[in-house]
Amino acid sequence: MTDDRLAIIILAAGQGTRMKSALPKLLHPLGGVPIVGHVLATARSLDAGHVIAVVRHERDRLVEAIESELPGATIVDQDEVPGTGRAVEQALLALPDDFDGDVLVVNGDVPLLNAATLTTLIERHRNHDVAATILSAMPDDATGYGRIIRTEAGALDYIVEQKDATDAERAVNEINAGVYLFGVSQLRDALAEVTTDNAQGEKYLTDVIGLLRRAGSEVSALPVSDSWLVEGINDRAQLSAAAAKLNALLVRAWQLAGVTVQDPATTWIDIKARLHADVTLLPGTQILGATVVESGATIGPDTTLIDTEVGAGARVRRTDATLSVIGAGAEVGPFAYLRPGTVLGERGKIGTFVETKNAQIGEGSKVPHLSYIGDTEIGVESNVGAGTITSNYDGVHKHRTTIGSHVRTGAHNTLVAPVSVGDGAYSGAGTVIRKDVPAGALALTVAQQRNVEGWVEQKRPGTAAATAASAASATPAVDAVSDDAAAAGNVDS
Ligand code: UD1
Ligand code: CA
């Protein structure tokens, strides 16, 4: 049920200079979702009456990400006055005048924060008569964070930023997590008092805590049990550490749901991926985007699947696949490259050193070796010979190749699109198929072979080849087999 007495403000206006990146900090992904997307998803799950996101730096790119992750959010543009306090001050203007509930402020750069932690914070705040409750943590390294300064009696007194802290204050290792719950009127009043008189020349939200205390209000800090929950991301070292933590949580959750993950350290699973019981992930595997793997499938080693569907019992080895569908019981790889639009039917095969793109390969059909199949449709139970290329591009336009069902094409064929091969047709080895092949026909384009008898002994006398040739001609030759099947030169495996 929507909590109309709760407003959430997400701070996403900062520049994120410590990332040293052209990409705004909050758009750097972990687990396949931008940093800010994690915070927005958590905020969304609380079902608050009001959600406001504050933007400024690269605002259009941020707004796009925010609207895709949390469509109902109100966007507020921060003005030129810098600081988290200013961001909140301006966000409050977007709330209805008669709103008198609680305001949850969350920094946009704490992606591992979960809903359970926020729910605890909200309950704790509402069960105590305090003007503000904040989350604190005890990380291994407090460098860079605002420090929580408590009174001798242990009550929260104020927060001091690293850059403004004395040596004694810096020695404190309890830090401000950047997650706060305030009564709206107390927050408004205190923010009006905040100045930019500090080392960074910013309006700090953190100053509100000391101001509330001095105005005689109670404030409290709730330590979280695991500091990783609230670790802020400011640089790329923190980004990779958070991504590894998130991945470890996801791998463990899938293991407990029945997925075998042989090597968690080299297996990466995005947050939106879905795996079924009895899937096996071998080392070096990345299950990215909205990839779905059905039960009993084995993926890896060294495989990257992006937005790809894998059917039950399929086997995918040393493969890179994007926006593809791999049917149940199908076999892919090793060393296959499936580009967008590849759809492999049940029991089908895309084998070794094969690249496919926009290719629909029917049930039981196989492209086993060394091929490029693009803009192509293949029926059921067909076999494409080793080293086959669909020439789909005339330099200006892409054209389609159609191969029917129960077709057997020879090794090293080139299909010059647009072209089609009818059901049950064959083609010889080395055929260049430029014209449509009718159903049941054998297509051949290679000129007949001519043997110049005795050429080596005449033209290369004294060589080892010539000696071998004369020794061979001394013994009676075995008749060469020459039937249609040999002429077709099919490779079938
Ligand atoms: C902030 C806190 C610090 C705390 C830490 C927790 C302040 C002054 N300091 O420091 O006490 O320990 O988070 O991770 O709040 N932002 C805006 N507008 C701005 C500046 C920042 O919206 O003008 C946003 C940023 O996009 C970011 C968040 O606020 O999502 C925090 O900003 P950041 O610069 O990372 O603050 P810290 O220095 O980490
Ligand atoms: Ca930060």
UniProtKB/TrEMBL annotation:
Residues 463-479 have a biased composition (Low complexity). It catalyses: alpha-D-glucosamine 1-phosphate + acetyl-CoA = N-acetyl-alpha-D-glucosamine 1-phosphate + CoA + H(+); N-acetyl-alpha-D-glucosamine 1-phosphate + UTP + H(+) = UDP-N-acetyl-alpha-D-glucosamine + diphosphate. Acetyl-CoA binds at A386, N392, Y393, A429. Keywords: Acyltransferase, Cell shape, Cell wall biogenesis/degradation, Cytoplasm, Magnesium, Metal-binding, Multifunctional enzyme, Nucleotidyltransferase, Peptidoglycan synthesis, Repeat, Transferase. Residues 258-493 are annotated as: N-acetyltransferase. Residues 459-479 are annotated as: Disordered. Homotrimer. In the N-terminal section; belongs to the N-acetylglucosamine-1-phosphate uridyltransferase family. This is Bifunctional protein GlmU. It comes from Plantibacter elymi. The lineage of its organism: Bacteria, Bacillati, Actinomycetota, Actinomycetes, Micrococcales.
